């Protein structure tokens, strides 16, 4: 497994479970309910809800899949199915405080023990591999390269070598086209670092500045897509219900939904155009031919990628991005997690409609 990719998976665990204070909080919750005055249903259910919220966040970040690729001596704590156990416990309307306490403390104890096992193993792995990677020095060269990971989760793209080769070819062409939008320098051949198992994880090197702009481009698409999903799964239904059957208002709402849907791809197109114009200010020699065609290809490939639930990760961050909150790679992961959570709330027919609208058709695959 590529070292940067492995470290990024461990850092996700560190961010969600350790740095967030979740591990500490679960320990505190277990200690607090040992006191008799805290063994009441209202208090314990409040703690349970906090834990469930965090476990849902871990699910949206795909933490279990990441841990499965790294852990060897212990199983991911997510496999305990703690979320389901807590939901079953909280839905029991006949349970009394004593029985709730007994079951709740057992669940928390098991959760803590497994998080501790995971942390011990991951700390050991990280200690070994950090010796072999020094990002600041490795990428201090005249032609800086960034390590980028494309994660394919949809079975249609990865179910056969024929389909997968088409997807990779599409991305290879799009990245070269995107490069010409942002710089006059000839693009280097995109070098493949590794292809990993599970959900197919394709890791490659690309010009550092291009990688940063590409990350911003994906983030833009995800933000707009996330807004559409929120509207579609909740807001639109509430608004339409409030219209009490008013045909004109409902028609206007349907038009707004259509525009928001189209704006997913349009926003990527406009962001890429904005990046192109910004780069032109410093590099007058950027190729200005067929800009609309290039922008159409870039926006189509990226929109197809995110609608299918696939991801892109920037595995190497800029040297001056020490603040985690401002790290582009982390921001991109947050947007991806929000999209995943909201997408789950759509009806099956709505999910299929999205795929049919934005999935690149067969005739475009071999461009």
Report what the structure shows.
- With about 375 residues, this protein is α+β, with helices and mostly antiparallel strands.
- Helices cover about 65% and strands about 5% of the residues.
- Strands 2-3-1-4 form a 4-stranded antiparallel sheet.
- Strand 2 and strand 3 (about 200-205) form a beta hairpin.
- The radius of gyration is 23 Å and the shape is globular.
- It starts with a helix and ends in a 9-residue tail after the last helix.
- The relative contact order is 0.11.
Task: Describe what is shown at a glance.
With 367 residues, the chain is an alpha+beta fold.
What layout of secondary structure does this protein have?
Layout: H1 3-19, H2 22-32, H3 41-60, H4 63-70, H5 82-91, H6 97-129, H7 135-138, E1 145-152, H8 155-158, H9 161-182, E2 191-196, E3 200-207, H10 208-242, H11 247-282, H12 291-307, E4 311-314, H13 328-343, H14 348-358
Antiparallel strand pairs: 1-3, 1-4, 2-3
Gyration radius, rounded: 23 Å
> Helix and strand string, N-terminal first?
HHHHHHHEHHEEHHHEHH
Profile the largest sheet: 4 strands, antiparallel
Can you give the helix content as a percent range?
55-70%
What's the total number of strands? 4
Whole-number mean pLDDT: 88
Shape: globular
What spatial order of strands do you see in the largest sheet?
Answer: 2-3-1-4
Secondary-structure-based class equals: alpha+beta
Task: Please tally the helical runs, counting DSSP H or I stretches of 4 or more residues.
Answer: 14
Low-pLDDT residue spans = 135-142, 321-325
What is the straight-line distance between the termini? 31 Å
